[in-house]
Model the fold of this input.
Amino acid sequence: MASNQGPNWRLIILSSEFLHRLEWLSAKRFPQPSLAEAAVNEVISRLSENNWHRLQAFTGKALPETYAHTVSARLLEDYARERFGRPRPPKWLKDNGAIWVHIWQMLCLERQWPDLIIGRLESDHEPGFVQNVIGTVRARIPRCGEPGYCEVANAEAIDEAASSASLEDQVIRENQRSVLNLLSTLISRSNSDACPSTPISANGILEDRLQLSPEDRLLLALIYEDGLSSRKAAAVLNSNPSAVQRRLATITSLLRDLMQDWGISGAEFAEVSNDA
Amino acid sequence: MTPEEQLLKAIAQTGTPSQLPSDEILARYVDGSLDETQHARVSAYLAQNPERRRQWRAVQEAQAYQVLHRQKSSAYWRIAGVASAAAVLLFTFVVTQNNEQANAPIMTVVLMPQTEPASSLARNAVPVNYWRAYLAGYTQPEQSLSSVSPQIAEWQVLGASLSRLQSQCGNEALLRVAEGQFDSAVADYPHLTQIKPTTQMAWCAFGEKLQQKAMLSVSLQKQTGEPP
Done:
């Protein structure tokens, strides 16, 4: 029984099926083969430490293999962080979304080969997306991937120890605040009395009117933060692409109506965004 | 990024920050064994946290990879079977042609019809212990997993999901979860995809339908005394 004595982690982790999938996961995170191999070794070594201590929190409510993969996926990220640090990404990158920051990490800090990154990630995104991100990052950060770049970027890193929120979390919050501030600026320019005048009230009205479920928010994050194609987002959410596209169209249409009610056009929003 | 997309990106992050889910909660989210409220909480958290979202996607993809891998393996054996049959036919044709040319008696080769042998059919049957796991999950959806074998546990999780769906018929999230689990559980048993429900109502009654199949399989096994 999994819940009484606990699963036999040695048997699970060292099974060829688990190792095969771990190698696959690592190869997706680290397209560079030598790095992927080193990461797998590190993860296995950490999992097996102190008689599989890292897996002892398991209570038997999830499938043991899924649990082991969840811990392994976190350890892969820990490995990247410990080996390459967590420097602060440039602001323009953050504004573009989490996938831009992720590709920048792979390309500039971890010095992984662009062709391999494209090969691993392109199937998750619209055609040409990853290539475009890589091209833009390299054009705007000429020292990207050069020896010493990591140290320079690390020197600018913020001290995260005081905060429990991750760097990417902070990036998201900053981005969210700035967009909602912009929205509020626009709203306050309009003459309508019914319009909110602060980011908080703008946020509240957006929440009320759009009626988004947590799954909707997750879908929006997958599409607009992670840059996934709707087909890939549907696969990740165990849905189908047409249902995902329909939901996105509904949300966009609701948002458009809301903006129209507030007297804000897309062009006006773009103009203020650019000014900011 | 268009202004609308920029706004939608910001909106995705709004809302009350949720509590960091443990690795096990995240694993249960992937397994689809959380209740509706817990599921919604984790979704909200993932929407706000790109790092955790990446971890979730990695595990989700690893699961999908397993299913794909299994499907590829069975496809490989199907292709291998067709290729062997083609090789026999070609061999027969060449031998026949040679014999005709030499005016020798024609070699008689009886080609067996391409029916699936009984052993292969037996291989495709869902093992009784899988059905038992299904029954355990269906009758006691909150019970913890009784097997460390992921394949068997998959059937228990399927039973639990269909049971929950039956009690909350019309819940789309539960339906999606149940559908995903059914697809994954039957990846090795493609004949079962023929009974996959096509309507929401049929999905609600599907747990019971599979329960009957499971009970039949278990009772047959008891009668014949075959090993599970």
Observations:
- Chain B has a mean pLDDT of 73.
- Chain B has nine helices and no strands.
- The CA atoms of residues 31 and 157 of chain B lie 8 Å apart.
- Residues 50-101 of chain B form the longest helix (52 residues).
